[in-house]
Amino acid sequence: MPEIFLLSKNEPPLVPYKFPIIGHTYNFLHDAENLLKECKEKYGDPFSLYIFGNVVTFAGADIIPEVLKNSDVFDFYTGLNKIFPIHVVFKQFMKNYSSTYTARMVQEQISNKLNIYTSRLQKELLLGIEKFFGNCKEPKIFKNIHYTMSLIISKPVANVILGEEDILDFYISESETHVVDDKYLDNLFGELYNIVFASVSTTSRFFTLAIFDYAGRPELWNELYEEQLKIHNESNGGNLSIEDVNKMVKLDCFVKESLRHSADIAIIPHTVMSDSFTFSNGITVPKDRDIYLYMKDSAFSNKFFGETSNEFQPKRHMTSFSNGKIVHSPATKVDKSFMMFGGGKRACPGRFFAINEIKMCLHKLILRYNIRTESGKIVPPKIKTSTYVPSDSGLIFENRN
């Protein structure tokens, strides 16, 4: 058995590797899922790998909550900029960018105003569905679903940002300036770009993965359809209110289970900003160390989900009582067992908007079409390094009526 090398006292164990410079990079790029699983089982939580010329630490189910809870120590945006150097590419537009300010804006002006945006979102979603899927009297095969869904999702987002009552008004009123010059316009573009980039890219990916999860599991179709039909019949001519969306308990549980199964293997690192940090298990990480969140370890933990953690079971998020009452853990809820949207003070404030948009679009699609995979089987997502992306396979759409 090879010796476990430690960089310094109390640091996470550095997993041994064969080739200098390359380290674990090749295995991480080509088989991150098995590499991280084996390392976690053998070396515990957390552990370190040598990838991309640096020692990086991976935090599993036990350590992730500590990373997210201490957001002042573990900075997400520093790590994000190493992976997606947006601040470098758009430097002139990001000079005054503040993640705290943007988070407050999203919470106050989007998530807290879903009742205002619901009708507009539906209108744009229906227009997108009609444009890209239309009448499927005969079964139609649609390829490149992810791209199509990004086009459908982006229009409602644009309507919220630049609509009748939008967040552009908020930015203008908050600017405290009466001079519209290049600097002001650059700052405005930077703020809006960040919101659009984050919302469209993530929402369309998770939405597409959810469509594939639905299309490959016929055992879920009837129950989900019946719930959507009941809500549709009880709504104002099919024009959903936010209260109607909140009644979609079974659909919400389905979306949450899809998100759990879509959890990236390991995601964007959080960089240690303090001199060091010691976790509750006594292990210490030094300043500037990148901490990757090993999300799959948490999402499929038997500690949280029991022996069926690898199975797709939406009802695991639901508790039914003898009096007919149903209580469920919503897809927007962040806890130790479900951290798709982060956690602590930095939990994604846009998750309420994203989940509601996904649910509304699924609601409309399920009511209108029978949707299935070409093979009639479950189509798993593709793995790109440590991230799950939707399959290139086609989906078959057919009118219900």
Automatic annotation (TrEMBL):
Keyword field: Heme, Iron, Metal-binding, Monooxygenase, Oxidoreductase
Recorded superkingdom: Eukaryota
SUPFAM superfamilies in alphabetical order: Cytochrome P450 (SSF48264)
UniProt-recorded Gene Ontology molecular function terms: heme binding; iron ion binding; monooxygenase activity; oxidoreductase activity, acting on paired donors, with incorporation or reduction of molecular oxygen
Co-factor(s): heme
Pfam families: p450 (PF00067)
InterPro entries assigned to the protein according to its UniProt record, in alphabetical order: Cyt_P450, Cyt_P450_CS, Cyt_P450_E_grp-IV, Cyt_P450_sf
Protein family: Belongs to the cytochrome P450 family.
Protein name as catalogued: Cytochrome P450
Organism encoding this protein: Gigaspora rosea
Taxonomic lineage of the native organism: Eukaryota, Fungi, Fungi incertae sedis, Mucoromycota, Glomeromycotina
